[in-house]
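Checklist before submission:
- one chain only
- standard amino acids only
- sequence pasted in full

Submission:
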Amino acid sequence: MDSNAMQVSRRAVLRAGGVATAGVAVGSTAFSTRASADPASGTGYVDVQLLNITDLHGYLQPPAPNDGGVITGADGVKLTVGGVGYLATHLNRLREGNHNSIFCSAGDNFSGWPYYVDSQNNEPTIEVLNALGLQFSSVGNHELDKSPRFLIDHMEKGAPYHLDEPFDSFVDSTGRRFHGADFRYYSGNVLYRDNGRLIVPAYNIEYVDAGGGRRLPIGFVHVTVDGCVDGPGFNCSYQPTLATTDFVAAANRSAAELKRRGVRAIVIVMHEGGYAGPDFNSGVNPTGPAFDLAAKADPDIAAIITGHWHCRFNMMIPDPNGVPRPVVEAGYYGQVINEIHLKLDRDTGHVIRELTTSTNHAVTRDVPVDPQIQEIADYWSRSSDKLYATPIARQTGDLTRMPNADGESTLGNLVADFIRWDTLRSNDGHAHFAFTPVLPPKGRSPLSGDLPYVKGANAADTDGTILFGEAWTVYGFDSPIVTVSMTGDAFHRGLEQQWQTQPDGSVRYCPVAVSAEVGYTYDPTKPVGERIDPANLRINGAPIDLHATYRIATNAYTVLAYDGYPAFTEYTDAVRHSLDHEGFIRYVRTRGTIAPPALGRATSTAPHPRGALPAFVPPPATGRDTRPPLPPGARC
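Returned file contents:
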């Protein structure tokens, strides 16, 4: 490395005025040194263009203004952005004239929240990324929302995913069955807990043309956010069979291995990020794990591409030797494309660090959409409308969230029964019984709609028909069902926590639905914490044994402490099952005819004190593509 390279403070951003390029929104370029601002300085070196996105989350259609569709630029200017049709146009224009162009992602490409991708197994996102020419991606935490098997066998390789039959391997826009990704996933710090093997390779090597028939290697090191499979802060990707290791150590380990293999140009692509102010193409006061890594990562690493935080920044941060290198993040939902230019020595393959530049380009909607990519997105949107209108079962009566005097509802009891049923479909983790919060003390109820008997507005609906889309939207927010070991005492105390004393001294009732194996009576006139006599809490007709351990099923969201029932977090030996939406579809479809479950699983032995019953007001109907709430303190 050049000992004369300009050294900058941790918070400095070296920028020069941007040059407007027709049809492409270009902000200021970050330069590693003043030499990199002089085009003549790069003469004789191999120019490599690195284009990257992150956290697309399946947002193929333009996101709404209040859902990531507007970003802030220099001087507070607002830009309307997003949509893969526009993304493709910007990508194509940025690639023009760049002989060595590499396009990658920092992860969370799929496991999207829009109904049109989520309900179709996230296969639409993979088809679009294939068409965009994505070459590789880091594993994001949401790529693990189903399982490593789903990521590797289905999304990468295109093998049918049997748990979602017949709603898997959809027909894509070409009329063919889903064949998987044309690119690969990588991570150096996500491994199987039982044997310590990585779930995917830690790094990849790409080759660029150096002229004269010579190729130069560039190594890409990949890591995933620590703890994303362990639960706290991460609900959807909770995977008890997996573990993560320290991502800084993993990145440095992969960099050392690449150097042993003779690779001299190395880039980190990581699904972890930070925050550096509101301007999408600069950075101030950087904070977060990505910047901690930047201060520690091997100084031979030439650039650090980040994600996960849903932030946008473009900075030059000194490595441990004080030499600047890009640290960038490209927002989310297709808002931004980051472009890094590396200059490689033709003979050695080393990166000439003082000539590195980086720019974040807003994916504005003031350009024509790419017709091929937009048609793929539109095809999947139309397909999702057809899927929504697909009848999957019949019902004999109303399935609603409206509670009776004891806090029970037909939909709540149905969901509790489904949760236990779902555990019986797997080879392990069978639950003795199940429960689900109906009106939790904090967070959002998983019951997000009703299934009335009378037909709805969809033209395909009839009285007593349950459509796929109706079942999908009434329950769940992409959280897994889990079976855990819990003592009878912990379960009893959890039920007692349905009544919680508020700061003003009032008592709030936060009912929990239980599966058909459970029945109990309670006395609302007794003190909080003493309303359920254990002798009157029965499991399959027998009084609960407070000292015994039961296998109990619920939503991971609840046992990971996001719902506000502390006793329900006292568990061990978790086993994952289906994601809530998908498992519920399977349950309804398998049963064929759904009768409203009988009420009476929880009954009061005395009249409720005035004001003690929940004042249930169904929330406003949400759109099909409404993003589920994040657990408190969690990041995407």
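Reviewer check: The radius of gyration is 27 Å.
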